[in-house]
Amino acid sequence: MTMLHLAVIFLFSALSRTLVQCSSHRARVVLSWTDYLKRVAPTALATALDVGLSNWSFLYITVSLYTMTKSSAVLFILIFSLIFKLEELRAALVLVVLLIAGGLFMFTYKSTQFNMKGFSLVLGASFIGGIRWTLTQMLLQKAELGLQNPIDTMFHLQPLMFLGLFPLFAVFEGLHLSTSEKIFRFQDTGLLLWVLGSLFLGGILAFGLGFSEFLLVSRTSSLTLSIAGIFKEVCTLLLAAHLLGDQISLLNWLGFALCLSGISLHVALKTLHSRGEGGSRPLKGLSSSPDLELLLRSSQPEDEDNEEEDYFVAQGQQ
Known about the structure:
By secondary structure, this protein is an all-alpha fold. It has one domain. Helix content is about 75%, strand content about 0%. It has 13 helices and no strands. The chain has helices spanning about 1-25, 35-55, 65-70, 75-85, 90-110, 115-140, 150-170, 175-180, 190-220, 220-225, 230-245, 250-275, 290-315. The radius of gyration is 23 Å and the shape is globular. The N and C termini lie far apart (about 75 Å).
């Protein structure tokens, strides 16, 4: 499922790049092999493992337990943001980490549908997700790479993500898939089309999700992306409880509430911090287009050179 989603995302991103290039008459960025393997490969591998382990865990745990555990990704994003110096260590951040960690313990403690293997897979995905989104933020916000546009980022990430997941796919699912009567050894054409259609629809949703996530990270930070998922987590838990019959105890809900309180505290702190530095990044608010931001960055040295040249010409004329 994940492999097909990656293929669909790559197809749509390549198509989008072609349409934008035809309409704007400007060539899209294509990284050199050196930059591609050095800058993009670590992010692609971490992303592939995050997505792969997350989907794998659904074989063992419920949607509600997955959602609760995956929300701990903000904890690891905080840690790696501190390691890569994207965030400053403050006492408030320590409090946020303690609240989230305590909430994680409470909403997994004596869960009625707890599965250690599935929980370990999700927790591993959350840990790798912290690395993934920290590297993604660094990738998107490096002006010299020119990957501020989410379409360009997804176009460069998907091939390496596909290759990164292929060994896991071949070892654990290759034989099963090749002998499945729903795919390669199908006997019912209608069933095959239904399976492929469902997977293709999931790929389209994954493309939209990836675009919005990368756009948000390019504008703000990986922490903001994780925090913005509060509303999504609540909706997912409610739907899982009402539609799928997932059992959530009072202790689990209290733990989740504690975790959300830590995330909400970080929202407030991030908002106050961004207001305090509102005037330090004038370039970021000049335009809503990442391409125009890059154009403005590259044109600034030329403008300064032109001003110096005009000055010396005026001096000579005098």
